[in-house]
Design goal:
687 residues; alpha/beta; Helicase, Ruva Protein, domain 3; 5 domains; six-stranded parallel β-sheet; five-stranded antiparallel β-sheet; 20 strands
Amino acid sequence: MRKIYKIGLSDEWVLKHRNDETLPIEVLKQVFSSMKGFVVCESTYNSLTFAVETDGEEAQDMKKTVCLLLDDKYGEGASSALVSWNEAHDSDDDSDDDEGEEESIFEKGRSVSLELGGDDDDDAGLFAMLDAYKETTRRQDPVATMECINSLIGAKEFKALAEELVKVAPLLSDKKYTEVFARKCYLFSVSDGYGLTTYLNLFADIINSTKLRMIDVNSPVTEVKIDAETSSKNVSDCFSWARNAMGGSPERVKVVCLDICAWMDRLDSEAFRNFLRYVENSLQNTVVVFRVPFVDKEVLARIKDSLSDLLIIREVSFPPFNTDELVTYAKKELEKFGFTMAGRAWKYFTARIAEEKRDGRFYGINTVKKVVSELVYNKQLSNAGKKRATYVISQSDAKTLCEDIDASAGGGMEELDKLIGAEKIKQQVEEIIAQIEYAKLNEKEAPCVHMRFVGNPGTGKTTVARIVGKILKERGVLRIGNLHEVMGRDLCGRYVGETAPKTASICRDAYGSVLFIDEAYSLFRGDDGGKDFGLEALEMLIAEMENHRKDLVIIMAGYTDDMERLMQGNAGLRSRMPYCIEFPNFTKEQLGDIFASMAQGKFKCDQEVLDAARAYFAGLSDEFINSKEFSNARFVRNLFERTWAKAAMRCQLEGISEVTLTKADFERASSEKEFILNTPKRSRIGF
């Protein structure tokens, strides 16, 4: 089935654009000529006739598409230049009803309204068509592609590469220079989750739009992860597939990204040499990009040298985004959904990002997208409940992203006063703060304020570190005063050269705040012969302690004995961490007080529950409490949360809406295996 349209533009408006590089009708003609199913029949300086092969639905309201194209190209309101629109009745190609002159066809046509805003689904389809057109146009226009690349967050070296290609393209686009550009390969140093696929597609676009190579725009990029334990068979399959898809023609190529992370410690092996020879023989059909994680420049240079034995290599580094850049990206993501976020709400976003980084598995913009999607969903759920739509995410909305970081409205010292069993710790903290303030007032050089927290798990080291950050912020020592928590091994990379930039990135995120490194002793293993990445992380930490002593406090935490071995294993650490706070185990009475504080802070509970809990903790063996395995307040929290779960289930079964804790709930929780084995064994009657 076919529809035929004839459109006319205002003579006066067309004359205003007579000096344009391409006249408006020619712009529309190029657009419809490039779209599937469209055939341009005739054109003049101010009119265009085109036919559309359609099933009768795809071409509905074509006028809206033309209006959108004009407004997009020439600015809002340009669609008013469309002064005539005629649409022929639908016709089958094998019918004789509509045979005749083109003019007679349009005599059967009807005038159509040019107003937008009809059916939402139709408008959505037209906007999708316009987006597809704009994407196709961008891939053919280096200026449009560069605008997209320059709008990227960060990626300074990638932007420089794109500008370099635009600059050299006019001199290399001639066919006789094809080999010159075809032999060039690229080395991208970018970590997981920081936009590799986006960079690759934009890279393909800039190559295609500058006519350096003809790229398959329908499927421009293939990504392959190379396994160092296998032969180059998967690489061979990848290149063979690319050639087959292109019909074997070197005129139309793909960008093939080869992830060589697994080869990074075997770059001099014969297997890797053979792999590079295969790559070299495939360059006529592909643009090759090697990918490694973000590593320091020295290691990247070594990788480039190994690749350069057979290939021409241009390296490009993509540093991980800092917190400010992640916030900027989050704002763009929110804008896509039509949302903004209140200024005070961003502290919860950054706190959530810090939480996401704590386990060492942070995936950059992918994680940001996840958090933004969670924000938007929760906001829309709130809107649905209130039966009204607001598009500003408030502080209370953002608070759902993470644990309450405003647990106390008081000052840091007031929070320290409320901690159970922290009398000696408070005294030590007060002495340290006094020394820091005295040094700050009487010395030109900023005092060294890095600390060691030593003691068993669950003795409050993380809690006190958070409070110390708050106090240092209140006393003007730190700008921000937040807590960034990581485990010691989180600082280590998986590959040679990855550890130093990873550690530096974690420190950079914590500038102005406290970086708390739990199990810091895991960075020093003593008998690794210098092969462990922990030593590299320690060296970078020492450099950060010295270079950013005015804007960063690093607190290392762990078992007393293990932390002492760490200090002995690296002479530079002890002098840079002059303050050491010891965290003793809680007494049995204090453990009971901690349970009571948790229970009374969340639920209604009678005295019987608290008495049962105190009796339970009083019955714990001294041997168990003094062992390394005992986790102190963490053990108490686990038991409290198990009691909470028992109570919640009971209340649900009884149809009670408000959860209350009973002695029976506690007894059921404390009788479970992981808790009952920690109490002294009682003699059974008769034995």
